Amino acid sequence: MLTTAALLEPLARIRTNEVVVTTMSVVRPWGLLSDSDLDFASADSAMGHAADLALGVALAQPDRTVISLNGDGSMLMCLGTLATVVETGAQNFVLIVSDNGKYEITGNQPVACAGQIDYALLAEAVGFARVYRFDDAAAWEAALPGVLAREGPTFVHVKAESGTQGPIGRASTEAARYLQHSLADWSEIMRLALSPEGST
Q1: Which fold has domain 4-193?
Q2: What does the alpha-carbon distance between residue 178 and residue 30 come to, in Å, rounded to a whole number?
Q3: Preceding amide of 153 cis, omega within 30
Q4: d(CA 110, CA 192)
Q5: What's the pLDDT tens digit per position in 49-77?
Q6: What is the pLDDT of residue 107?
């Protein structure tokens, strides 16, 4: 299994101008590694829709890679998203599921059928162009440049360790800059970063 740091740190090191949409257990850790206007914390509304939001960005920005850092609980709540991604043919979309078996930021409740669901197999079944499985940090880090370089849609299932984070808020007390703004304000920051004038 990978720690959250082993999952996120290699991605933060090689990330350039990709949009990264985070949710649940990876929101805070990613925000401490990255301070880009192209990061988006999708942790304010109905659980399970971060991948949907990221797919929308990918369709609106076909020349930019969009990465969704999703959770297993969130993925389980919206399995239909897998079929929608394939149907759209979004080649610039990378969906990474961090599978820790827990709803970490709401109290570490177990995800239904934790450890029994092969999310990668589900992605293969609906027709993702590329599907990867990782439970080893070194293998993940070595494969990551190729995972991001190839045309998708791409699905990545990562077996991860669970942590003990509490609920996420949006306030000046949060260390991650994208959590120090309201959802509306950060949406505007990201919109401007994605505009032709602000593109990086």
Answers
A1: Rossmann fold (3.40.50)
A2: 10
A3: yes
A4: 38
A5: 899 999 999 999 999 999 999 988 888 88
A6: 58
Structure-token pair, residue 194: 């994605």
pLDDT above 60 (res 78): yes
List of long-range contacts for 17-20, beta carbons under 8 Å, 24+ apart? 17/64, 17/199, 17/200, 18/64, 18/65, 18/66, 18/67, 18/148, 19/54, 19/57, 19/58, 19/61, 19/64, 19/65, 19/66, 19/67, 19/190, 19/194, 20/66, 20/67, 20/69
* More confident site: 97 or 77: 97
In this prediction, residues 172-197 reach a mean pLDDT of: 91
Residue-level pLDDT at 73: 84
Q: Mean pLDDT score of the chain, rounded to an integer?
A: 89
* Rounded distance between C-alpha atoms, residue 190 and residue 176, angstroms: 15
- For residue 78 the two structure tokens come to 């919206």
Gap between the Cα atoms of 76 and 13, Å rounded: 29
